TrEMBL record:
This is Heat-shock protein Hsp20. SUPFAM superfamilies: HSP20-like chaperones. InterPro entries: A-crystallin/Hsp20_dom, HSP20-like_chaperone, HSP21-like. Belongs to the small heat shock protein (HSP20) family. It comes from Thermus scotoductus.
């Protein structure tokens, strides 16, 4: 009866739950993807990345081709704990730059656990769409 009401098969539902649990309870040594947002402004883009507990000495922001990479590590202090819900480990995220982003003049600032990367924009005329014919065959 559940299959009639639920749009996923049991195996797809189980897989989705297992993936969510795996992400929530990652094994030590896994790579964490920080939460982020990219907003568009008239003359620049603003990438905001949540990196609580990291300082500039623990972060690296670099360009690799058309990607902006944010990488760092939040190291766990060795001490006796009675509760531990804080996630430690290596963070890594690569962002594909928009077509009109300039690679020169990118600035990164860290403020209250949020990394802000300002990416200048080039003024370019919009590209017209290119129609691709569809062939039968």
């Amino acid at each position: 009866m559940l299959e009639k009401l639920w749009p996923f098969s049991r195996s797809r539902f189980r897989k989705a739950v297992e993936e969510a649990l795996d992400k929530a309870f990652q094994e030590e040594g896994g790579v964490l993807e920080p939460l982020s947002e990219l907003s568009e402004h008239e003359d620049h883009y603003l990438l905001r990345v949540e990196v609580p507990g990291l300082g500039p000495e623990n972060l690296e922001v670099r360009l690799e081709g058309d990607q902006l990479v944010v990488e760092g590590e939040k190291k766990e202090e060795k001490r006796t704990k009675h509760l531990s819900e804080i996630v430690y480990g290596r963070i890594y995220r690569a962002y594909l730059l928009p077509k009109d982003a300039k690679k020169e003049g990118i600035e990164a600032k860290l403020h209250k656990g949020v990394l802000e990367v300002r990416i200048p924009r080039e003024k370019r005329p919009p590209e017209p769409p290119v129609r691709i014919p569809v062939q039968e065959g």
